[in-house]
Amino acid sequence: MVHSLELLLDEASDQQVRDEWDTLAAAGLPSQSAHRAPSNRPHITLAAAGHIAGSADAALVPVGMRLPIPVLLGAPILFGRPDHLTLARLVVPSTDLLSVHAQTLRLAADHLGDESGGGATPMPHSLAGRWTPHVTLARRLTPDELTRALAVLDTRGTIEGRAVGLRHWDGNAKTESMLAGRAC
């Protein structure tokens, strides 16, 4: 599994995304609401790697001190293969968001590695220049399910919110650590 560093949304925008998850689930479609663990919440992944040491948490305090920052969730976006699609909302890459992303990668760089302590880099999709900020709505959609999902969701509007928290997600242990900062 992977570790990731993620921005969390304010209560109102978090709820709007959860409402979209629930709309998909009510239509019998794959949805992130199927994963009801308390740690499953709408988020924007800043960095992902095979392992991120716990020491990264203290190093990332300056990022947490920058929060909250405004975020705008916009149009639907797709990732994956034609038979295994992920539907998400694009997060408009504002100057603030791009700066937080760059600072996160810079401060976390010395804390990335594999389980044996060997060095590692962020996964390619989270590198500067390749990163597409988004909030996931559903995974593993077929083309027919995608068509139905877009029909039941009203994705014409945007969700205006704020990124208010920073967390370190450990995909192996399925645990989260909230990182200190101004919004904590």
The second-level CATH architecture is: Alpha-Beta Complex
Class from secondary-structure proportions: alpha+beta
Largest sheet: 7 strands, antiparallel
Order of helices and strands: EHEHHEEHEHEE
Proportion of beta-strand residues = 25-35%
Q: Roughly how many Å is the radius of gyration?
A: 16 Å
CATH topology value: Cyclic Phosphodiesterase, Chain: A
**Please, what is the oligomeric state?**
single chain
What are the segments in which pLDDT stays under 50 over at least 5 consecutive residues? none
**What is the tally of beta strands?**
7
Total separate domains = 1
What form results from the Cα inertia axes? globular
Distance between the termini: 27 Å
Overall residue-averaged pLDDT value: 89
CATH class descriptor:
Alpha Beta
Number of helices: 5
Question: CATH H level: which superfamily?
Answer: Cyclic phosphodiesterase
* Percent of residues in helices: 25-40%
Q: What would you say this structure looks like, in words?
A:
The protein has helices at 11-26, 55-59, 61-64, 95-108, 143-152, and strands at residues 3-9, 43-49, 69-81, 84-91, 134-141, 159-170, 175-178. The mean pLDDT is 89. A hairpin with a 4-residue loop joins strand 6 and strand 7 (175-178). The protein is globular, with a radius of gyration of 16 Å. 27% of the residues lie in helices and 32% in strands. The protein has 5 helices and 7 strands. It has a single domain (3-178), classed as Cyclic Phosphodiesterase, Chain: A. With 184 residues, it is an alpha+beta fold.
